[in-house]
Amino acid sequence: MAGQAFKKFLPLFDRVLVERCAAETVTKGGIMIPEKSQGKVLQATVVAVGEGSKGKDGDLRPISVKVGEKVLLPEYGGTKVVLDDKVSLMIFAPLK
């Protein structure tokens, strides 16, 4: 899944790099879904995580997600990043 560029890529602060999951092409009942009918996939896998951000008191607040976890994405949001010819998204992460 993660190529060489993903392993070297480290997001800063409270940012997370995610890779969208593949769209479902067949339903559980075996019906094939046409490409035009497939919606935008809002589920992704976390590929890289920043260290967190500092609060007003100066303490580091870690990010609440870890590499490999599945997350839900906002429909409109994130910054498109291209690594190893794969399109990924850089998003803000929830802090603990």
UniProtKB/TrEMBL annotation:
Question: What keywords were assigned to this record?
Answer: Chaperone
One GO MF term, please?
unfolded protein binding
Supply the CDD domains for this chain.
Answer: cpn10
Q: Name one GO cellular component term.
A: mitochondrial matrix
Q: Which InterPro entries match?
A: Chaperonin_GroES (IPR020818), Chaperonin_GroES_sf (IPR037124), Chaprnonin_Cpn10_CS (IPR018369), GroES-like_sf (IPR011032)
According to the record's subunit comment, the protein's assembly and interactions are: Homoheptamer arranged in a ring structure. 2 heptameric Hsp10 rings interact with a Hsp60 tetradecamer in the structure of a back-to-back double heptameric ring to form the symmetrical football complex.
Protein role: Co-chaperonin implicated in mitochondrial protein import and macromolecular assembly. Together with Hsp60, facilitates the correct folding of imported proteins. May also prevent misfolding and promote the refolding and proper assembly of unfolded polypeptides generated under stress conditions in the mitochondrial matrix. The functional units of these chaperonins consist of heptameric rings of the large subunit Hsp60, which function as a back-to-back double ring.
Its family remark reads: Belongs to the GroES chaperonin family.
This protein is called what? Answer: 10 kDa heat shock protein, mitochondrial
